[in-house]
Amino acid sequence: VVGSLGLDNIREMPLYSKPELEKRIGFGLGEKNALVTFHPVTLEKDTAGRDFGELLKALDVFPKLKIIFTKPNADTEGRIIIELIDRYVADNPGRAISFITMGQRGYLSAMKHVDVVIGNSSSGIIEAPSFHKPTVNIGDRQRGRIRADSVIDCEINRHDIAKAIRKSLSADFIRSCRKTRNPYGNGNCADRAAAILKTEAGRSIDIKKKFFDVDFKEVRI
User: Fold this and answer.
1) CB-based burial of residue 99 (10 Å sphere; 0-12 exposed, 13-18 middle, 19+ buried)?
2) CA–CA separation, 189 vs 4, rounded Å?
3) How far apart are CA 77 and CA 144, in angstroms?
4) How far apart are CA 42 and CA 90, in angstroms?
5) Distance CA 93, CA 12 (A)
6) Residue 208 vs residues 18, 73, 211: alpha-carbon distances, Å
7) Which of 11-25, 123-137, 170-184, 201-215 has the lowest average pLDDT?
8) What distance in Å separates the CA atoms of residue 151 and residue 142, rounded to the nearest whole number?
9) DSSP string spanning 107-150?
10) What's the half-sphere exposure (Cβ side, CA atoms, 13 Å) at 75?
11) What is the pLDDT of residue 185?
12) Which residue from 152, 192, 151, 199 is spatially nearest to 4, judged by alpha carbons?
């Protein structure tokens, strides 16, 4: 177990200061800010619009919360979420902005300077705890992943999401996040992996593929 490679970037990449980030994205941060990334769940059908709509309704409960949306991946129904983001940003000028991609440096810099990460992206589980920032993790897209104490899980409905956001912005929870220990490590993952490979390279390891004949009668489909 060596940790997550994504954390090496946090340790080694020079991130933008808050003024630099604001200038680069053309968006001024407010008193409270959120980074929102929500992807469709590929094993669920016709749920993306409904689920993301619940998230948007929850965000409406916090009119002073400024929002940076990053758009979803190319999974099925991602276009539905993109259209909803575009409409929300158009209806909330100055309060919300969206990006197809911010680039790794831009995204991690945004994570560093916002107050909460919201959505169902693995970045809220793996990277956000290293910045000691709260994560509101919606639904079960990240089910099974190890979680830091800074992650708040909630169901996909506006009331549960709003409750989780309210908790994430509370002084007590923010204070507790300062003590968060990221279960995915503190960086140096690549160095640890390389050290293990160097040690193992001195041993005789058979890396050739092996195949085994199976009696077709034993196969159950």
Assistant:
1) middle
2) 6
3) 23
4) 27
5) 35
6) 50, 35, 10
7) 201-215
8) 11
9) HHHHHHHSSEEEES-HHHHHTGGGGT--EEEETTTTTTS---TT
10) 16
11) 80
12) 192
- Structure-token pair, residue 122: 């693995």
In residues, how long is the chain? Answer: 221
Nearest residue to 9 (alpha-carbon basis) of 196, 186, 193, 192: 186
DSSP alpha helix (H) spans, the chain: 6-12, 18-25, 48-59, 78-91, 103-113, 122-126, 158-168, 171-177, 189-201
> By the 8 A CB rule, do 58 and 168 touch?
no
pLDDT band at 202 (very low <50, low <70, confident <90, very high): low
74 against 52, higher pLDDT: 52
**Which tokens sit at 152?**
């708040």
Rounded mean pLDDT of 99-128? 95
Contacts of 48 (CB under 8 A, 6+ apart): 40, 41, 77, 78, 80, 81
Instruction: Read off the tokens for 104.
Output: 């790794």
- 136-173 pLDDT, tens per residue? 999 999 998 999 999 999 999 999 999 999 999 999 99
Helix (H) or strand (E) holding 203: none
Which residue type is seen at 131?
A: F
DSSP state of 96: E
Lowest mean pLDDT among 104-118, 127-141, 200-214: 200-214
- Band of residue 90 on the pLDDT scale cut at 50, 70, 90: very high
